[in-house]
Design goal:
The complex is a heterodimer. Chain A is an all-alpha fold. Helices cover about 60% and strands about 0% of the residues of chain A. Chain B is built from 44 helices and no strands. Chain B is elongated and about 140 Å long. Classes of the chains: A mainly alpha, B mainly alpha.
Chain lengths: ~120, ~800
């Protein structure tokens, strides 16, 4: 959302009121009835902010322009580190390393006598 | 350097030509001899032979065996690309060449080539490669190696089985597969330990891996270990980069991975919280399309703590295509934050801020639907330009803002613009005044506009219009400041009598004090009823107790300020203490301030009278007064007061004991249990809080300071100063002697004047080394009439 979008958003929140103060007030009353402060405080706050912005656009713009908070849409968090996971990558690296280091001549020797010599 | 490069190149060229000659004359023997010495050169020659015309049948067999041996040497030296090239050039003519090609391709991650070469190598080669390929493809490898394999192939099988289990998280079972003495045995064991709690175990395994020569020779393996260790939280990216000596690319990748992991926690955050978080994070792990917004948020997060860095972040946001309006707004706010960070804003800083704001205005003016913000930005640009006195730029910005304000019919903003423009023309008061008048016509209750009008009329010297403006402004705005100035102005012109128009119950203590301060001096300042007219006393009587006390203390300070050195302050204090005798707490406060102002006589007289007053709650009141004396460090005064029979009788033994104990403790330790020493400055602060904003005793402070500008000194120095003698004389004495002198001198000075006191004082001064004629000169002023130490009690 950009600065411009604040107005579009405000109009949307009040159900796109027509031109003029009377129309704005009517729309505000309707929105307050739809979102009463005691039951929907968050929605009501949005309605009130929208009304104040549209009632005195320049005055509110002066305040908002100096607000030290961003109005732009927040960035999407980066995707989680892609698969494979840590074990996967490590296993793969060790496999490749084994292939790189093994003595090929010994691989093609005859079968080991007496089974597994390491056991 | 160039010469060395040339020499190196020449040597290399020489070697190659030697080799060419050797290969041409001796053939395979020359290559064979080179394998150990220079595998790289050997591979070049071997490739030439392999790719050249087919050798004789007997020679071919030798060449294939040589190529396989060379490929193996290259592969085991970590030169898998070269190994693959040599093996592949052998055209898979022998199982050994197939095996070398399969192993080199597998080491490089080319599993398809590896599988094809293994297939072409026949059953034995295929059986050797199969477990590796299955493990790489995440297929089951099995627990036992098939029969008929060599010992080395069985070892390789175990590696594949262990890796397959490690990959599937089956580390527990895989442990049994890894053999300490076999191929990569220690590395596999350590890899399996990495993820096991407690973390110390993982860290030990990490250290073992980092020390492994096999891993140190393999950048991809080190990179994988680092990624795994990061995943298990065994260290930060920086620690792992150092430990595993990662190359630049791997280090960058690891840092990115770490950043991405941290940024996972940001999902769902927005606004200021996200901005604050991103101020501490590296935003490079964000996708490029999101990085602009990330830099934007980072900028807002840095705005409060580091505007310069925030500005840099906004620049990066623009580079990455973030919302331009927001980025320029951020840059403007950053400029604003930097403004005056090192003292008053400079014209250059103001110009830069105006420029940043106007750039934002131009960007927003081009954006449909952002007109109001464009107007606001124009005003933001006009303000610093006005302040800097840049009329041309300020007028441009004001013009832009005005046209937008007209479209929005925003009268409040139009008033603001009029006042800004009036400020721009402040050096031409008449022109500025017409703008202020226009603002007031639109907004008649605008305090700032009235204040500006008053300033301009003062500058024009138009007293008549100034008075009218003050009265009208005070009426329109109800501002106490304007009302006060209006009264003062009317009083000056004689249009208003002192206290006229002040209504009891409506006027505040501060306003009353302010009016009192502006009242002409009375012949008898010491008598409050003579000094202030009945109207003032009526107003005072209608004040609440706290406000009345504040007013009384303020008037005490006024008397001290208006009649320095006279005894009016003593008499005024005495009367005030008498008036408040029923309220010990108030008595304590008044006495603290009175003693601070040097009204010792008034204090002593009040204490004596109070002791004799049968109706007053004397004990509590006297304790409060005693505490006030202790609070201003006058223990001698407490002793003297307590020694008086009437006082000690009313105090009772308990009261006397309490005061003496208190005085002793405060003298010894500077504090006492259960006794909060209230300084006169604290009392005056409380008074000023009540009187604010109409009046403050602080503005009388300069009148209470010593004429000689003395800012302090030891008690002995103060005593000498009071007597008109040079205080530096006692500086050479030991501190104990200085204190003794001060104590004795003060005791003499606090007694009624007389020949005995003068004689004692003379002896004392001669004792500490003053010349007799200086002493006589000082004594001529009389010990009973020393220069009053205004503004302090000693």
């Amino acid at each position: 959302m950009s600065l411009r979008d604040l107005f579009l958003e405000a109009r949307k929140t009040l159900g796109d009121p027509g031109e003029g103060e009377a129309a704005l007030k009517r729309a505000y009353r309707r929105a307050v009835l739809a979102h009463p402060p005691d039951r929907e405080p968050e929605a009501f706050r949005a309605v009130r902010d929208a009304y104040e912005l549209l009632l005195d656009p320049l005055g509110r713009a002066i305040e908002l322009l100096r607000a030290e908070v961003p109005f732009a849409k927040p960035p999407l968090a980066p995707p989680p580190p892609a698969a494979p996971g840590p074990e996967d990558a490590l296993a793969d690296a060790l496999l490749r390393l084994a292939a790189a280091r093994v003595d090929a001549e010994a691989l093609l020797d005859g079968p080991a006598e007496g089974g597994d010599r390491d056991e | 350097m160039a010469r060395r490069a040339m020499a190196k190149r020449s040597r290399r060229e020489r070697l190659e030509s030697q080799l060419d000659r050797a290969v041409a004359s001796d053939g395979l023997e020359a290559v064979e001899a080179l394998i150990e010495r220079s595998p790289e050169l050997a591979s070049k020659s071997c490739l030439r032979l392999l790719e050249g015309p087919p050798p004789a049948p007997g020679e071919r067999h030798r060449l294939d065996a040589l190529a396989a041996r060379l490929a193996g040497t290259l592969r085991q030296a970590g030169r898998c690309e070269q190994a693959l090239r040599v093996a592949r050039a052998g055209g898979r003519r022998t199982p050994r060449l197939c095996l070398e090609e399969a192993l080199a391709a597998f080491a490089l991650g080319d599993d398809a080539t590896s599988a094809a070469a293994a297939r072409d190598g026949g059953g034995k080669v295929e059986a050797v490669l199969a477990p590796l390929l299955r493990a790489a493809a995440r297929e089951p490898v099995g627990d036992e190696p098939p029969a008929g394999l060599s010992a080395a192939a069985r070892d390789l099988f175990r590696v594949a089985a262990s890796c397959a289990r490690l990959r599937g998280g089956g580390g527990e079972r895989a442990t049994g597969q890894a053999s300490a003495g076999g191929l990569l045995g220690p590395e596999l064991s350590a890899a399996l330990e990495l993820s096991r709690p407690p973390p110390e175990r993982g860290r030990r395994a990490l250290e073992a891996l980092s020390a492994s020569p096999a891993l140190r020779a393999s950048p991809p393996a080190r990179r994988a270990v680092a990624a795994a260790a990061l995943g298990y939280d065994l260290g930060t990216a920086e620690e792992l980069v150092r430990l595993l000596a990662l190359d630049r690319d791997s280090a960058h990748e690891l840092r990115q991975r770490e950043g991405a992991r941290r940024l996972q926690g940001l999902a769902g955050m927005s606004g200021a919280a996200l901005a604050e978080r991103l101020a501490r994070e590296d935003v490079s792990p964000f996708a490029e399309s999101e990085r602009g917004a990330a830099y934007l948020y980072r900028g807002f997060g840095l705005l409060g703590s580091n505007p310069a860095q925030a500005e840099a972040a906004y620049d990066r946001a623009i580079e990455f295509g973030a919302d331009l309006g927001e980025a320029l707004r951020g840059k403007m706010l950053a400029q604003r934050k930097r403004l005056g960070a090192k003292g008053p804003p400079t014209p250059r800083e103001l110009a830069a801020l105006g420029e940043a704001a106007f750039r934002l205005h131009r960007a927003l003016a081009r954006t449909p639907g952002a007109e109001a913000f464009a107007g606001a930005a124009a005003i933001a640009a006009a303000e610093p330009w006005v302040q800097a006195g840049d009329r041309r730029r300020a007028a441009e910005a004001l013009g832009a803002a005005r046209s937008i304000a007209q479209r929005f019919a925003a009268s409040a903003v139009a008033t603001q613009l009029d006042l800004l423009e009036a400020e721009l023309w402040r050096h031409e008061p008449a022109r500025a005044l017409s703008l202020v008048e226009a603002a007031l016509a639109r907004s008649p209750r605008h305090l700032g506009a009235w204040q500006r009008k008053v300033e301009l009329l003062e500058a024009l010297g138009d007293d008549e219009r100034l008075d009218a403006a003050l009265a009208e402004g005070a009426g329109a705005t109800g501002d106490p400041g304007l009302a006060r100035r209006s009264r003062a102005s009317r009083r000056r012109r004689g249009a208003l009598a002192p206290f006229e128009g002040l209504r009891p119950g409506v006027v505040t203590a501060g306003e009353l004090a302010d009016e009192a301060w502006q009242t002409e001096l009375s012949p008898d300042l010491g008598d409050p009823t003579a000094w202030l007219p009945p109207a003032a006393w009526a107003c005072r009587g209608a004040l609440a107790a706290e406000a009345r006390l504040a007013f009384d203390v303020a008037t005490l300070v006024m008397v001290a300020a208006r009649a320095p050195g006279a005894d009016a302050c003593d008499r005024f204090l005495e009367r005030l203490l008498s008036a408040w005798r029923g309220q010990p707490e108030a008595l304590g406060r008044i006495a603290t301030v009175g003693l601070r102002l040097g009204a010792l006589d008034g204090y002593t007289t009040a204490v004596t009278r109070l002791a004799a007053d049968a109706e007053a709650p004397a004990a509590e009141a006297l304790v409060a007064l005693g505490e006030a004396a202790i609070a201003v460090h006058d223990d001698g005064l407490v002793d003297r007061v307590v020694r008086r029979k009437a006082v000690s009788k009313r105090l009772g033994p308990a009261g006397v004991k309490r005061l003496k104990q208190l005085a002793g403790q405060v003298r010894a330790r500077g504090c006492a249990e259960g006794f909060a020493r209230r300084h006169a400055e604290d009392v005056l602060d409380e008074v000023d809080r009540v009187l604010s904003p109409a009046f403050s005793t602080a503005r009388l402070q300069p009148l209470l300071e010593d004429d000689d500008g003395d800012e302090g000194g030891s008690p002995a120095q103060v005593v000498l100063e009071m007597m008109g003698l040079p205080p530096a004389r006692v500086e050479s004495l030991p501190v104990e002697l200085q204190d003794l002198f001060a104590e004795r001198a003060l005791r003499i000075l606090s007694r009624p004047p007389g020949p005995a006191a003068i004689a004692e004082l003379r002896a004392l001064l001669l004792d500490i080394g003053f010349r007799p004629d200086d002493v006589e000169r000082a004594l001529r002023g009389g010990p009973g009439a020393p220069k009053r130490a205004k503004g302090r009690a000693k």
